[in-house]
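Ticket #4471: structure export looks truncated?
Reporter: QA, pipeline team
Priority: medium

Steps to reproduce: submit the single chain below to the structure queue and open the exported record.
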Amino acid sequence: MADLSIFVCTYNSSRTLETCLTAVRGTAPDARLVVVDHQSTDDTVEIARRHGASVLSEGVGLGHARQMAFEEADTKFMAFVDSDVEIVDSGFFTRALAELDTVGKGAVVGMAVGHRLAYGLPASLLVLRSADFRGRVIPDQVDARETYFIQGRLDALGLKTVYLANAIIHQSQFRQYKPEWEGANTRVACGIEVGQLAFALKVILLMSLNSRSVRNVAYVPIFYLKFLRGFANPYPWTKLKRAEV
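Actual output as written to the record:
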């Protein structure tokens, strides 16, 4: 897959990065692999280089890292893979690139194993056509909800998203202030848009239903209230770094 560049945005990701990159190399051995690192202080960079990845360093945030990837992509297709994701579908990229060669389709999302309810544009495993994302896409100050701007570009081009089931295992963990942090960063990225508040509630509910956990579903109202707390007063929560959430 010489026409594919894969970008992994990292920050102190050594706990999961070995598994992530091993799977990436196993599913797309010929793809260009680039790690965009947020000045990690652990073994992240060493792991990346051991897997033959090019390493770009940035000190701004996730929005800036994603934008760097768009500017760096020099192949027909590009993909984002989160550092805590393991790709388990060996044919995922083959199917994804075939979908993107179809008129009217502009993004392919790899869904987690067992998840049946698709939503939004998660960047855990996201494949795009590089040419669709030339120029400025994501503002530097955005540190979450950066996919809002990716979705905006797709909407402007009239392109649809395809979801492929059972593609990944996601090792993400619940973080104490995640609801407030997500709400605050939604406000920064999207401004005051009532539609985005409704969209956030939909995503929170579908994520909980996908988990098939009664506890998670019961927690939805509390999570959303905390999300609204961060949305209403974003300043203190945007001061938290991603690793502090």
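Status: closed, not a bug. The export was complete when the record was re-opened. Leaving a note from the reviewer for reference: The mean pLDDT is 91.
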